[in-house]
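step 3/5: co-fold with fe (ii) ion
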Amino acid sequence: MQDRHQLEALDRLFDHFNAAGVDHLVISGDLSSNADQGDWRIVKEKLAAHGLYHWEKSTVIAGNHDVINLEEEMRFYNALNPLPLLRKRAFDRKLTDFSLFFQELITGEEGGSKAFPFVKIINFPSVRIAITALNSVYPWYPAENPLGARGLITSGQLRALSLEHVLASLRECFVIGLCHHAYRVYGTDSLIDQAFDWTMELKNREEFLVAMKVIKAKLVLHGHFHRFQSYSVDGITFINGGSFRYSPQRYSELLIGREGDFEQKFITLP
Ligand SMILES: [Fe+2]
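step 4/5: write tokens
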């Protein structure tokens, strides 16, 4: 995200959000393509420059490309064959780095590094929204996660959502789930696509779906695939906000009504 045209396009998009009076912005991960903190910084600075870098204005989660530098993983692995435990530790550190980097948007306060899962409850005049964010990025493993693009949501995170005090705080809220990976894996019905799709999938998507039902989520927002897509599974609407890199004038807009009704559309700027 170093390219001048991309930076201008980001300014245009954020200007538009402000002009349109957007209440809250959700960025569903993959801010960088090679786990580069410089890319995170650009997003942070651009949000700040447009007055959007505030807990109640924006939410950001990590994507696999923010945490895993595939080329580096492979190079180190081939040269040193490091122990899985060491690699897992390096992964956890990078995810913590991300959460600390964007801490103001996650906890809204200083201190505390355990970012996921987190629940953000925002009171708007007409509706109270709860954004329930989970980390679905899963470490690179040579056989099991060869592209670093396969996802998993740890059972600890899923369990945390069903704790009584969490469920109590979500009552009376319009609940939105958020993670980086998609529930729906297949982009097409072609067998050749399906043969490769497992490398991009959310491994425990059925467990995730159950957790979303437990918290009574009406919507789940995600990213990962570069498609603008909305689909429904067991009464829950999933929305993939697409890709800024491939379509920098396009985004997903969500209007939520007082009665828990909502309307979603993809908008393209002129
Ligand atoms: Fe991704």
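step 5/5: annotate
The longest helix spans residues 84-101.
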